[in-house]
Write a structure and sequence with these properties.
Elements lengths: L2 E7 L13 H7 L2 H7 L3 E7 L18 H20 L3 E6 L4 H12 L5 E6 L20 H8 L14 E11 L4 H9 L3 E4 H7 L1 H13 L6 E6 L21 H14 L2 E7 L10 H13 L6
Parallel strand pairs: 1-2, 1-3, 3-8, 4-5, 4-7, 5-6, 7-8
Helix pairs in contact: 1-10, 3-4, 4-5, 7-8, 8-9, 9-10
Bound molecules: manganese (II) ion.
């Protein structure tokens, strides 16, 4: 039994595209809290962090769109996540676009008494751009780089931790669409990327064994899970902001989550980029709930 606290972050400014702001509602409507309780967990929903909407603001810097707004929202997310961890609970953060990870990871860092965490980043993309190299200016494509310490110029410390994630403990799983400069950035920072090609050749079980080892330093330290629903093939997860075909299958996604549960050292988790406007009968939010349940102990037998 785990004490779980659900935090919604209906932010879409990092994607510069409407729809993912409704992600937290869609995931809740799919029965998240009741189904977690049925698994035997103690669940509390702390509600949504309040975030600005695009109608009330405008883009000032095209290479880091809505940066002041995203920074401010991230501070609130960080505070909320840190508070949940200080109560000994596991934060379950619902996005929103993937820029919310900047706040989540800063909060996890604080919750770990200012120690960097490791992270399993399940995503079709690397999210390892910076404002210097981004083709789109959308911060949801930069969140991992910023959390790994490449964002000090744009997210100055304090109040930001210089790094909230240890780059040697980052494992990206399921990548299949990287920007050219982003790829160079990943290589230069020695980030472990397990692409779809690796999953094809090695299988999901071997890839996850290796990825978990990277994130947890051989099961020696807790880690964070950042799950972008676009890692799953669009045939199973149509309701995402930036679908890319050739993703992981329904069973592979569950296997990954079941293996995460078996480690018993997942410390925090976020599910992001569910876009109900593009979804079919809430299938993607439903999948998000199922995957959360697998990561928290649901088994077939
Ligand atoms: Mn992402």
């Amino acid at each position: 039994m785990t004490n779980i606290e659900i935090i919604g972050v209906p932010l879409d400014l990092g994607a510069d595209h409407r729809g993912v702001d409704m992600g937290p509602s869609a995931i809740r409507i799919a029965g998240l809290s009741e189904r977690l309780k049925k698994l035997g967990h103690d669940v509390k929903d702390v509600g949504n962090v309040s975030v600005p909407i695009p109608e009330e603001t405008r883009v000032k810097n095209p290479s880091a769109k809505y940066l002041p707004e995203v920074s401010e929202a991230s501070l609130d997310v960080a505070k909320t996540v840190a508070k949940v961890m200080s109560r000994g609970s596991l934060p379950l953060v619902l996005g929103g676009d993937h820029s919310i990870a900047i706040g989540t990871l800063a909060g996890v860092y604080q919750g770990r008494s200012n120690r960097e965490t490791g992270v399993l980043w399940l995503d079709a993309h690397g999210d390892f751009n910076t404002p210097d190299i981004t083709p789109s200016g959308n911060i949801h494509g930069m969140s991992l780089a910023i959390s790994a310490g490449l964002g000090i110029k744009w997210f100055p410390s304090p109040p930001w931790p210089a790094r909230s994630v240890d780059p040697s403990r980052i494992a990206i799983v399921g990548a299949r669409e990287l920007d050219p400069q982003e790829r160079i950035n990943l290589v230069q920072n020695k980030i472990r990327v397990f692409s779809m090609a690796d999953i094809d050749r090695l299988g999901m079980q071997e890839v996850m064994t290796r990825a978990i080892n990277v994130a947890s330093r051989g099961l020696k330290d807790n880690f964070h899970v950042s799950f972008d629903l676009d890692v799953v093939d669009p045939s199973y997860a149509p309701g995402v902001g930036t679908p890319v075909r050739g993703g992981v299958t329904y069973r592979e996604a569950h296997l990954a989550m079941e293996m995460i549960f078996e480690t018993k050292i997942m410390e925090s988790i976020e599910m992001v980029e569910v876009n109900p406007i593009l979804d079919e009968q809430n299938a993607t939010a439903e999948l998000a709930v199922e995957l959360i349940l697998s990561s928290l102990g649901k088994r077939i037998m």
